[in-house]
């Protein structure tokens, strides 16, 4: 876990180090899929009027298929089936400075300009991903919902500060891959080896990396949640410290959300899910 200092330059530097963004490239060949796993959006068109009453669960929010679980699944020695939670660093785009990011139109109406700016073929899979990301970012807010698509690290920090306050003591929880040199299978069984960190919080901010020509995070506030960092060991020996978020109150979710079907839960019951390493969970902790 990374303590975030009061100096934003340090915040950005530490965050970049944690997420290996110093190794990332700004590329027209961006691809956020993990090794051997197709992580295309489970994107679905929704009736805009439905946003007045129901939020979408993580199946809708993030650019990957979540691994859902119960909190009781995090017990020592339990086995979890999960896809590989690492990302291909060489194929992940770089973050842009705020000034440069703000100069690029961020709108479905201007997608042609975006593709031209990054020399992306309009008929390519990358163009399709970028269009889907813009569609998600442009969806209307549900009543009481707080979210933003952050096009820079600075804008992400601004959103987090708007939720917790400018003087909050911030902490980041993210998944860590320890044995990147091990070529893990796409899906395998992981054994829970311990709990590194746990926290129950009235509010957190989750930021999910979405496919785009440069680093872009879909950040949203989560009310009433638990956060864990769990030591996992794969059958191949790969060690992962996985970030887990448990949504304690899902009564405002779409009752047909995939999570309820997978976990055999009813609307309102807790839902937990693992997060890939390119996702961030922000917490406000006591000084």
How are the secondary structure elements laid out?
Blueprint: E1 2-3, H1 8-18, H2 58-61, E2 68-69, E3 79-83, H3 98-102, H4 111-117, H5 125-137, E4 147-150, H6 153-164, E5 169-173, E6 176-177, E7 187-209, E8 217-234, E9 239-247, H7 258-263, E10 271-275, E11 279-285
Antiparallel strand pairs: 1-5, 2-10, 3-7, 4-8, 5-11, 6-9, 7-8, 7-11, 8-9, 9-10
Mean model confidence by pLDDT: 80
Q: Structural class from helices and strands?
A: alpha+beta
From the alpha-carbon coordinates, what is the Rg to the nearest angstrom? 18 Å
| Head-to-tail CA distance between termini | 15 Å
Strand content: 25-35%
Number of strands: 11
Shape: globular
Q: Main sheet, how many strands, which sense, barrel?
A: 11 strands, antiparallel
Low-confidence stretches: 1-53
Helix count equals 7
> Roughly how much helix do the residues carry, as a percent range?
10-25%
Description:
With 287 residues, the chain is α+β, with helices and mostly antiparallel strands. 20% of the residues lie in helices and 29% in strands. The chain is built from seven helices and eleven strands. It has helices at residues 8-18, 58-61, 98-102, 111-117, 125-137, 153-164, 258-263; strands at 2-3, 68-69, 79-83, 147-150, 169-173, 176-177, 187-209, 217-234, 239-247, 271-275, 279-285. Strands 1, 2, 3, 4, 5, 6, 7, 8, 9, 10 and 11 form an eleven-stranded antiparallel β-sheet that branches. The chain starts with a strand and ends with a strand.
